Amino acid sequence: MYSKEEIVKSVPQTGFVGQPKGLFTLFFTEFWERFSYYGMRAILLFYMYYAVKDGGLGLDRTQANIIMSIYGSLIYMSGIIGGWIADRITGMRKAIFYGGILIMIGHILLALPLGVTALYLSMFFIIIGTGLLKPNVSSVVGDLYAENDARRDSGFSIFYMGINMGGFLAPLLVGLFQKNWGFHAGFSVAAVGMFIGLVVYLMSQKSLGLAGSVAPNPLSDKEKKTTTRNFTIGGLIIVILGFVAYQTGNASIENFSLLITFLGVMIPTLFIIYMYRSPKTNADEKSRLLAYIPLFICAVMFWAIAEQSSTVIATFIDTRTNLNLWGFEIPAAWFQSFNPLFIIVLAPMFAIMWTKLADRGPSTPKKFALSLFFAGISFFVMIAAIVLTPEDTLVNPLWVVFSIFLLVLGELLLSPVGLSATTKLAPAAFAGQTMALWFLASAAAQAINAQLVRVYGMVSETTYFGVLGGLSVVLGVIILLISPIISKAMRGIK
């Protein structure tokens, strides 16, 4: 295992817009991975609930929303496995490569007209592949910088902009292909995007130096035997439980969603307890983990609202929004591009702002609190759109765009800052796994959303948006009030 100093010295510290040269590799690898993911996600919900005659699978709309939430939760939940594999077996660099291959296979399966079977099989490959790739590519970004490098937050903001460049272009291109040549043509574009990402990664990874090249906490020979046994037993238990559920008639999407919601809440809780109690975690790291808990809760609340862009908000756009502009029917998938578009425009401004403010800027907890205010207000805007639109009239799409804009302001206060804070607060022995914990906030949020999308059809839209928006604002106030306590527990990390 290399020391932090050895890793940083091995990486060329200039060569990409004033950042370490290796950021170029990770920027474009994540660009293409997110291109493939967000392109697929922009049309997947519609593919599930559109009628067979329209090229879809004809599933019930509420059920499609539940599946979408479960899928999103499992994608981020799988980061635990991916982070663990990188930390204990392969190292982060190999995990990224293997993950990319599995993701590409998943998109290829969606591109083939094989029905529901291919849908679930593709989800399996993309879930495992994303778990290997996503937390580890972010962790390698953190390895490029010394602990107190002032460029770290701006570097993560640039990296985050790369993610969103892929997220901006993908729905436009995939949506266009889907509109003109069908869903499978759209999914083909996503598959090609991941292939390009793998090529970029292989051709330029030398610039990463030693970052992510070895497993920081490799398994001993004794641990390898124990791990093999535990994984085998765990796999058999899952197969047996699945068989029993099928035989007893309990293998429904609704019941599975309840299981995922339970796991989405319990796994990060147990994970934090495990790292806190580990003898490999020192006193300062324990304090930082405690400080991380309220930040994690903030992230869950924020993503519970933000991740509904692919479920409730996507359905609202498709069914309740006027998509006819000057005689042209706008593909509903294109609205998925507004979020990354705003981030592309605003992320450089935020990066410059944090660099110039340096120590004078708001603390990490205060940034998180502000993000919740914006998230809550974005849902209040949806209420205004509904209330101010005459009955039996489609909503003006500018309301939705404004709601997305407010959410993006919150996202830029939380997501890149959270990525950076996670790499700084992570115990040394659990670097990749702590980054997986950050993505578990999205997993928990979407696991909760698997139940919320069922509520959406049972209450009025104003009640739905009002309660969630109000909860976000109230939690933001609480975090703002206790921010000095959180900052003190971070033990010198800002």
Automatic annotation (TrEMBL):
Transmembrane intervals:
35-52, 64-86, 95-112, 118-137, 158-177, 183-203, 231-249, 255-277, 289-306, 333-355, 367-388, 394-413, 425-444, 464-486
Return the similarity comment: Belongs to the major facilitator superfamily. Proton-dependent oligopeptide transporter (POT/PTR) (TC 2.A.17) family.
Tell me what organism the protein belongs to.
Solibacillus isronensis B3W22
Keyword annotations for this protein, in alphabetical order, are: Cell membrane, Membrane, Transmembrane, Transmembrane helix, Transport
GO biological process annotation, one example: tripeptide transmembrane transport
In what way does this protein cross or attach to the membrane? Multi-pass membrane protein
* Subcellular compartments: Cell membrane; Membrane
Q: Boundaries of each Major facilitator superfamily (MFS) profile domain copy?
A: 22-487
Name of protein? Di-/tripeptide transporter
Q: Which domain of life is it from?
A: Bacteria
MF term (GO), any? peptide:proton symporter activity
Any keyword Transport? yes
Q: Name one GO cellular component term.
A: plasma membrane
NCBIfam families membership: yjdL_sub1_fam
The keyword Transcription belongs to this UniProt entry's keyword annotation: no
For this protein, the record's Gene3D superfamilies field holds: MFS general substrate transporter like domains
